[in-house]
Amino acid sequence: MVMLLFITSGCTISYKLNGAAIDYNVYKTIYVSQFPIRAALVYPPLQQTFENELLDYISRNTRLRTVDSGGDLQLEGEITGYSLSPQAVTENAYASKTRLTIQVRVKYIDNKQEGKDVDQTFSAYRDFDSSEMLTDVQDELCNQISKELVDLIFNATLGNW
User: Which residues, 6+ apart, have CB-to-CB distance to 119 below 8 Å?
Assistant: First the structure.
């Protein structure tokens, strides 16, 4: 019994969920700013879709409390790219697939420890059949891409990889 108390008294509490290694004795709050669209091509619902996915992912996978400003940790950024490009060109020189690519620049600031900040651009894409209209698949593609971007951002910041 005494040995068990001795072993546990020197430990700090840290939880690991989906790769997150956060010491909740040190980090209690996170501020997530808005991510305005700064891309040449703009799809207005994308900002809300991305921000909601990011906030939901953080609340599901950490015990951090979101705050309106400051915070032990901060995530700021902007959607810098939203573009379409032809893929898989056929023998008649027509593209059979179109690629939707979204880029997000993220600044992660650790207000408790120096040297942990991240300033990086993340990119993800989905291909869709060129016979489909973008307006018909845009919402679903943006949801899928946002989920992938959030996963990449989480792993590079809160995931402590």
Answer: 105, 106, 107, 108
Q: Residue for token digits 């032809």?
A: 86
Assign residue 107 a region (left: φ > 0; alpha: ψ between -120 and 50; beta: otherwise).
beta
Q: Cβ contacts of residue 92 below 8 Å, gap of 6+?
A: none
pTM: 0.84
Q: Are 100 and 145 in contact (CB under 8 A)?
A: yes
pLDDT for position 94: 79
Task: Show Cβ contacts of residue 12 under 8 Å, excluding neighbours closer than 6 positions.
Answer: 23, 25
Q: pLDDT tens-digit profile of 31-55?
A: 999 999 999 999 999 999 999 999 9
Residue 71, Cβ density class (10 Å: 0-12 exposed, 13-18 middle, ≥19 buried): buried
